[in-house]
């Protein structure tokens, strides 16, 4: 599966546009991680626990988007983007979306 943030893929010809595909996941913060994050907030620096959690959420949402695209016969996704939204106080949705296409 080719995934790009651009609307075209250099060297490839789009032969069919399938349409919008997406994948999402909702992640909640963990009390243990919040304690460690609070301590890091005092001394400064990267909050590694949250960085890892968000990276995993992005990967999961991409995997779900790819699964949807493949089920519709796509071999590429163009115009891929991420969106995040707060679902509740301690939980966020990560949405990966783009346009599924067939390229040759």
Describe the protein's architecture and organization.
The protein is α+β, with helices and mostly antiparallel strands and 104 residues long. It has one domain (2-103): Translation Initiation Factor IF3 (2-Layer Sandwich), CATH 3.30.110. Helices cover 36% and strands 41% of the residues. It has helices at residues 31-43, 48-71, and strands at residues 2-3, 14-28, 76-88, 91-103. Strands 1-3-4-2 form a four-stranded mixed sheet. The longest helix has 24 residues, at 48-71.
Summarize the structure.
The protein is α+β, with helices and mostly antiparallel strands and 104 residues long. The chain has a single domain, classed as 2-Layer Sandwich (Translation Initiation Factor IF3), CATH 3.30.110.70.
How is the topology of this model organized?
Blueprint: E1 2-3, E2 14-28, H1 31-43, H2 48-71, E3 76-88, E4 91-103
Parallel strand pairs: 1-3
Antiparallel strand pairs: 2-4, 3-4
**Which value, in Å, is the CA radius of gyration?**
17 Å
* Tally of contiguous helical segments: 2
Extended strand count: 4
Give the CATH superfamily. Answer: Hypothetical protein apc22750. Chain B
Order of helices and strands: EEHHEE
Beta-strand content estimate: 35-45%
Stretches where pLDDT falls below 50 for ≥5 residues? none
From the spread of the alpha carbons, the general shape counts as elongated
| CATH T-level fold name | Translation Initiation Factor IF3
Mean pLDDT: 90
Q: Share of helix among residues?
A: 25-40%
Total domains, how many? 1
Strand order of the largest sheet: 1-3-4-2
CATH class: Alpha Beta
Describe the largest sheet. 4 strands, mixed
CATH architectural grouping:
2-Layer Sandwich
């Amino acid at each position: 599966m080719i995934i790009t943030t651009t609307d075209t893929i250099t060297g490839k010809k789009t032969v069919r546009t399938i349409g919008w595909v997406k994948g999402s996941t909702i992640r909640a913060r963990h009390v243990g991680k919040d304690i460690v994050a609070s301590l890091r907030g005092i001394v400064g620096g990267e909050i590694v626990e949250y960085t890892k959690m968000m990276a995993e959420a992005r990967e999961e949402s991409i995997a779900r988007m790819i699964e949807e695209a493949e089920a519709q016969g796509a071999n590429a996704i163009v115009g891929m983007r991420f969106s995040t939204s707060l679902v509740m106080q301690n939980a966020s949705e990560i949405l990966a979306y783009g346009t599924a296409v067939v390229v040759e």
